[in-house]
Amino acid sequence: MKPVKLTMTAFGPYAGREEIDFSLLENRKMFVISGKTGSGKTTIFDAISFAMYGRPSGDNRSAQEMRSQFAQAGQLTEVELLFELKGCQYVIRRTPQQEKVKARGTGTTIASATAELSEITDEGKKVLLAANVRDTDEKINELIGLEANQFRQILMIPQGEFQKLLMASSQDKEKILQKLFQTVFYKQVEERLKEKADILKKEAGKTVAEQMTMLKSLPLYSHEMSILLNEEDVMTDVVFKQLDIDMDMMQREHQSMKENIVKVGKKRDEHVAERERGTTLNRQFDALTQSIEVKRQLDDRQEQMQLITVNIVRAERAEKLLSYEDHVQKAEKALVLAHERKKEAMQNETLARVQFDQAEKVLKREESRQPERDKAIRHYQQLESMKESVYAFKEAVQNESICREKLVNAVASGVRLHETLQEMEQKISEAEHTIKPLELAGERFIKADRLVEKADQMLELHKEARAAASQLSTLEAEKKEAEQRVAEAMQKAVESKKQVLALRQKLKHEQAALLALHLTEGEPCAVCGSIHHPKPAYSGDDDPLIRDEDVEQAEKHASLIEQKSYDEERKLSSIQFAVNTLKKEIEKMKAKLSEDQTIEDVQEMLQGAKMDRQKAEHDREKKQQLAEQLHMFNQQKEMIVQNIEQNRQIEAAEQRAHIEANSVLAQMEKSVPDQMRNVAQFIEVFDQVKQQVEQDKQQVEQARTVYHEWHVALQSAVSILNEREQAMVEAEASYKDTAAIFSEKLLENEFIDEQSYQDAKPFVDHLLPMKESVELYNEEQRAIHMKIRELEKTTNGLERMDLNKLSDTIDMLNDEMNEWTHKAGMLAAQMSESMRTKEAVMRLSEQIARVEEEYRLAGHMYDIAHGKNELKVTFERYVLASFLEDILIAANTRLVGMTNGRFQLERQTERAKGNAQSGLDLLAFDQYTGASRHVKTLSGGESFKAALALALGLAEVVQNYAGGVSLETMFVDEGFGTLDPESLDQAIETLMDIQSDGRLVGIISHVPELKERIDARLEVKQSERGSEAIFVFSGEI
User: Fold this and answer.
1) Which end of the chain has the least Cβ crowding within 10 Å, N or C?
2) Among candidates 661, 693, 672, 694, which has minimal Cα distance to 388?
């Protein structure tokens, strides 16, 4: 990144628009920035940093505080930077959050920060890349490849920052390097390891508890198992051995139960078969009795079935006559209908003749009134010709009235508008008088708000200090408790180890005593080979024997106690670290607080500031409301004035319209008679005449229509009557023929008369059901006779069986078998549950072993990463030390040149005393003495050289680790005044080496020799109206 042009407006000491064109340097790669103290040299760095990242170059200034105090109220603070990056040109423009004058009305408002980034094409056009602060920040980070802290460390070394990294403690260097190299990831690795270890520890404890719960839930079978499960420390292997014994006993008992179930079941089945045979026989006896009863009932219905058979024959003969009867009935209905239709036609013919005669009379009467109708038509035509003139006169009268009313309204409106204008001018005068004392409310609010913010920060610091002190007291108490637990745990661990040693010794003694039992005088010992045994080992009979398992169990117990001791030590170390950290935080807080200012003083100051801010805010809001009200009044006044002018024009127009309407009305009065000027009366007469003409016309037309209609109707009625008289004759002949044929068919089917046919006719509809009932009766008779013969044959010589006794015996055997089945099922379920529990406990044992191994590994890795190692170096600090080594390599290449090879910087690798953090402190190796010493022992000039070399090395390494970003510029602020001429030459040579690779180097300095050595200067001149900057060149390169 290389700056091309920097433009500042109302920024710092630069009151107006200040433009610095770096392209004027042409091929020069180094220049000096000179000027008086406070003139604004460092502000140039602040402007570049603000343009790129929205913040100044130092941490002691904010972007909002960079507004120029020389600037005019209406001028906004703004910075614009044109820069080159990787062959492309970009322009970025930013404004900070600031107070500005309102666009409308009076007073001020807060303008939000803005940012805009564009790329300049080869044709000189701007292509917008980002239009707001967030997008611009993201795009700059993407283009530059650096965050703000990294950019500032590489691009510029601000005033007072030279020796900050050089002299910083190991802990402070860690914070600086953390920001530059973003090593929070390594700290997160350490925290993740701790979280992993804690999770594994909890998981192991949870799994052990789950395993114990499963063991306790084992179904009890034997008294021995009950004793084992009620012990405080349940031994899994012992429980499993007893469970195997119990399982064997349960399996044998379960097999015996199954044999009893088979035995009782076989006996039950024999009785069930016997009961089934008895049930079948008894059912056959019951069926025989029921069949005999059914036969008796069928015999009782025989006479009824004979009667149904006779009715079936009669219904079949009657069914043949149904169609003939239907023909007779239809012919009879046709005859009746023909008679009725003839009667109806005769009535219609008589009515039509009467109506025709009457219509003929009416038509002749209407035709005789034709002269009267002609007279009415002439009267109507006369009124029609006068209609337009009557309406025009009415419209002229109405128009004159409307114009007169509008003129009166316009005159009244003008009077009201002048009165309103006077009232509005009075309101404007009162508002201007009220707003004048509130002009400074905005400034008073800003001052009070800053004081509230400062008091809030101090109060929060007091509260944090109190909370930290309370937390420190709690931690001290926890520390004492932890120390007590550590001492107790260590004592238990020692005692458990002693018990293990005692058990081992006793086990050896008992093993020796066991061997001694088989020793015989004169026979060699299996251990030492001696044939004499003067003092064989002896074990008392009262003490219980020690097993290898007992020793192993004691060792495990001792190992757990020792692990608990280690855990307590880790907890104590963590608490101690927290105490030390909190003490340092408290010291920092005390350093920031004034000793003679209590929290009550701060609260009192805060309360007063809040009241002042509230009063100023109230006045500012009131001022704002009054300004808006005054603006509204002025707008209303302008509108009233415009309305008065518009009303004046309207009044003149209405006056002209009224005169014209009067003239038109006078002309109409000459052409329209007095009796015709009432439109309503004219319309009434006109409508009556018109209605009479239309009514006369309709009457004559209606008379002609009615006459024609009845003439047609009479002819039609005569024709229909002739047709229906002929139909009557034909219907009478058809009825006589069908009646004769029906009588013949009655005799053919053995019906003596029509009544006997009608008696048989109802059975026709039931013919099919009657046939089916007869057939069903005959079939039932045959079936019941056959069934009785078969049952008599089956039961011949047999008797009924007693089934209740057999059922009682079967129920008793079922109960016995169910009892054995239930017991066997319960026992099988107990065995299955025991096996499932055993398998689950075994799986949990494997899981516990795996989790404990993972916990051991994770805990060990966390201890290493947390600094519990020989060098007391954490994982993150180890990585930072590697970065620092790279920085020192780059720095020493420059420091050797500036000190004629005398000094080299190196990292202190020795462990610090106590628990102090180490690994990042710097030493200076002196070739003259052959020894290393702390950098704080260097002189002023030596420390400047070392700091400059370290800063240049840091900039190089940060740039490399940032992905080789292109930063072709560096600014250095002050520090050269402490150097002698030779050292100054060496420092300049070092900077010359930097600019030799194309990097632009700018130096702020008051040293005359430096100005003489470098021919390009950016002079910053200070005046009462603000500062200005201009390039001055003393020669050509």
Assistant:
1) C
2) 672
Both tokens of 88, joined, read: 């492309």
Note the pLDDT of residue 19: 93
Distant-in-sequence, close-in-space partners of 279: CB < 8 Å, separation ≥ 6: 803
Dist CA 101 CA 99 (whole Å) = 7
Do strands 14-21 and 2-11 pair parallel, antiparallel, or not at all (unpaired)? antiparallel
Tokens, residue 517: 């039992």
- Token pair of 194, please? 């701790």
**130 contacts 109 by C-beta, under 8 angstroms:** no
Q: Residue 462: how many CB atoms within 10 A of its CB?
A: 19
Closest CA to 45 of 149, 160, 155: 155
pLDDT in tens, 261-317: 888 888 888 888 888 888 887 888 888 888 888 888 888 888 888 888 888 888 888
Q: How far apart, in whole angstroms, are the C-alpha atoms of residue 958 and residue 880?
A: 12
Q: 1024 or 124: which carries more pLDDT confidence? A: 124
Segment 583-607 shows an average pLDDT of 75
Q: Which of 751, 728, 730 is closest to 324 using CA atoms?
A: 751
Specify the 3-state DSSP secondary structure of 546.
coil
Structure tokens at 962: 């940032």
**Residue (of 6, 33, 39, 41) closest to 20 by Cα position:** 6
Rounded to 5°, the CA angle 807-812-817 comes to 120
Q: Which residues contact residue 34 at a Cβ distance below 8 angstroms, ignoring those fewer than 6 apart?
A: 41, 1004, 1005, 1006, 1011, 1017, 1018, 1019, 1020
Query: Using CA atoms, how far apart are residues 731 and 339, in angstroms rounded to an integer?
Result: 9
What whole-number distance in Å separates Cα of residue 921 and Cα of residue 911? 11
Mean pLDDT of 801-811: 84
pLDDT in tens, 3-40: 999 999 988 888 888 999 998 888 888 888 888 877 88
Confidence class for position 1037, pLDDT limits 50, 70, 90: very low
How far apart (Å, rounded) are the C-alpha atoms in residues 908 and 479? Answer: 32
Q: Which two tokens stand for residue 528?
A: 């030492």
Cα dihedral 9, 12, 16, 22 sign: negative
Question: How far does CA 590 lie from the centroid of its chain?
Answer: 44
Q: How many CA atoms lie within 13 A of 331 on its CB side?
A: 20
Token pair, residue 985, equals 């030459």
Fold of 2-145+972-1033: Rossmann fold (3.40.50)
Q: Is the pLDDT of residue 79 over 90?
A: yes
Q: Which residues does 346 contact at the CB level (< 8 Å), separation at least 6?
A: 721
Per-residue DSSP letter, 67: B
CB atoms within 10 A of CB 194: 18
Average pLDDT, the chain: 79
Give the Cα separation of 541 and 537 in Å (integer).
Answer: 13
165-179 as b/e, with b when 16 or more CB fall inside 10 Å? bbbbebeebbebbbe
**Residue 320 one-letter amino acid:** K
Q: Using one digit for the tens of pLDDT, what is the confidence trace for 517-539?
A: 666 676 776 556 666 666 666 55
> Which pLDDT belongs to residue 1036?
47
Residue among 944, 935, 942, 996 nearest 970 (CA): 996
For residue 542, the model assigns a pLDDT of: 53
Q: What angle do CA 921, 923, 926 make, to 5 degrees?
A: 180
* Residue 118 φ then ψ, to 5°: -135, 155
**pLDDT over 80 at 130, yes or no:** yes
